[in-house]
Design goal:
- This protein has 274 residues and is α/β, with parallel strands linked by helices.
- It has helices at 48-55, 80-86, 103-113, 118-131, 148-160, 178-195, 206-210, 230-234, 237-242, 247-259; strands at residues 5-14, 22-32, 37-41, 63-68, 71-72, 87-90, 166-170, 198-203, 215-220, 223-228.
- Strands 6-7-8-3-9-10 form a six-stranded mixed sheet, sandwiched between helices. It has a four-stranded antiparallel sheet with strand order 2-1-4-5, with helices on one face.
- A hairpin with a 2-residue loop joins strand 4 (63-68) and strand 5.
- Bound molecules: adenosine-5'-diphosphate (ADP).
- The site of adenosine-5'-diphosphate has 13 residues, from strand 2 and helix 1.
């Protein structure tokens, strides 16, 4: 079928015509289908944040087109408000935006703004909190009394409560300890699997992404340089190293190859079969 998101020759230039002019997105073509689990990776400054801010219309491409559900979002009269309800963006450290007195009210905030009834808001909030594995015993707790991981879950639930078709998470593991990192990624993977929601996970760490996603998009200097399954992308480990994505993925590649029964030496050169 048709992709849910389609980027056609997307370009973005910050501060054009000034001394600070910076082309952060260069002719990016990308198709994403409903139900896919996508990882966008690249080193700091490669254009990941710029890319995802296009997806819900927060920034407008300086060139090219973007289609959501087959519709050009740059055409006259297109509702960016409606788009934002369907593409839920979870920013880095989303818990900094928790401000209500209790968790449930916080998660209700989005649906309430949509004008839904109190009852419907609560229903959606509870459903969203369940999706992120947030314990029911803490629904009435103050967000400020939660652990780092629970705060983050509550913040993600706030976006899920809007029932978006696409969930975009910018570095959802930033600042969490290794256990918290695994927990949140496992939970996101579970929610993606059970709901078939389109999930886009942004990370600078291959390690975080590779284990979970169906497809990896690798960004470098505003360009999409790879777009393939983790396995296929990992085969280009030399190029990945060149663009600042080194050690963990090499480890992963070795793991994958060993699992497939391919003899691998420690310096990753494939060993010829005797
Ligand atoms: P990433 O998310 O991969 O770290 P960004 O999309 O934030 O990358 O940045 C891509 C490039 O655009 C970088 O060179 C960055 O310095 C530049 N950039 C980001 N935001 C701005 C801005 N508001 N003004 C000017 N340049 C920016």
């Amino acid at each position: 079928g048709e992709p849910i998101l389609s980027l056609r020759g997307l370009n973005y230039v910050y501060s054009p015509g000034t001394a600070y002019e910076k082309q952060a997105m260069k002719d990016v073509n990308l198709d994403i289908w409903q139900g896919e689990f996508i990882g966008i990776i690249g080193h700091t400054g490669s254009g990941k944040s710029t890319l995802i801010q296009h997806l819900d219309g927060l920034i407008r491409a300086t060139g090219g087109e973007l289609y959501f559900d087959g519709e050009n979002i740059y055409k006259e009269g297109y509702s960016m408000k409606a788009l934002r309800q369907q593409v839920g963006l979870v920013f880095q450290y989303p818990e900094h935006q928790l401000f209500e007195a209790d968790v449930l009210s916080d998660v209700c905030f989005g649906p309430k703004n949509q004008g839904l009834s109190e009852e419907e808001c609560k229903k959606r909030a509870k459903e969203a909190l369940e999706m992120v594995g947030f314990p029911e015993s803490l629904y009435n707790a103050s967000p400020f009394d939660l652990s780092g991981g629970q705060k983050r879950r509550a913040a993600i639930a706030g976006v899920l409560a809007m029932r978006p078709k696409v969930l975009v998470l910018d570095e959802p593991t930033a600042g969490l300890d290794p256990k918290g990192r695994d927990d949140i990624l496992d939970q996101i993977a579970l929610l993606q699997k059970t709901t078939h929601m389109t999930v886009i996970l942004v990370s600078h760490s291959m390690e975080d992404v590779a284990k979970y996603v169906d497809r990896i998009i690798v960004m470098n200097h505003g360009e999409k340089i790879f777009d393939d399954t983790p396995k296929q992308v990992f085969l280009h480990y030399k190029r990945l190293e060149e663009v600042g994505l080194a050690a963990p993925e090499v480890t992963y590649l070795m793991h994958e190859l060993r699992e497939a029964g391919v003899p691998v030496s420690t310096d990753i050169t494939l060993v010829e079969e005797a």
